[in-house]
Fold ABC-2 type transport system permease protein.
Amino acid sequence: MLNYINAELYRNFNRKYFWMYTSIFVALAILANIAFLILGVDSRTEALSAMLDFGIIVPTFIIAGFVDFVTAEENKTDTVRNVLTFGLSRTKMVVGKIITTVIFAFIAQIIILSIFFVLYFSLYGVNTNVVNVIVLGFQKMLLATPLWIACICMLTLLSFLIKNNNIAITLYLVIIIFDKVAVEIVSTFFWSKFDVVQNILITNKLKDIVQEGLKQNNILYAITMGIIYIILFTGLSIIYMNKKEIK
């Protein structure tokens, strides 16, 4: 499986897709720094804090591009069978796809954040308040990581289930954007007890991380929920791919 992951990393690193996609967010990071020029020191620190909090939510959308070029695109073009002909099991292929996507997502995150903070420090310097904001922001990101990986696993499953990568990604985005609204509609008009589902929505838990920070119960719940979803979506992907007829 390690050879497969290495091959996937090499294949996608040598394509323009990854670099162009990452460059979009690098450009946004640069623009954010330029926008900070109009703010005073205190307002700039508050804006940095708000942006880091926003950075807890936005990866749920950004990961769509990474799943697209690692898994969805290959499934669409029916080239998955080429991998299986070399003797790699379907289970290892699924796990390898998820690991590869996670690696690409975090490489992109490192690139984007590195460029943002190097530019920020160069333009505005560093003080105690800024350091505290950044440390808290990174702690929240670390806590959100299992939930981000769960989103990757969810979209990977949808990409296996739906051959059209555009439809798979659109469905994923609809789920992420409207999951809370859907639960509220069902609980309001059909079954009031369904509202309990709000407690297990990934987006709601990410918002809790933003708003409540590093409370002990928040830490345990976010990590536990993330791991459960990772196992669930990965398991369903493995079951589906092992039963799927690939010609």
Notes: The chain is about 85% helix and 0% strand. The chain has a mean pLDDT of 86.
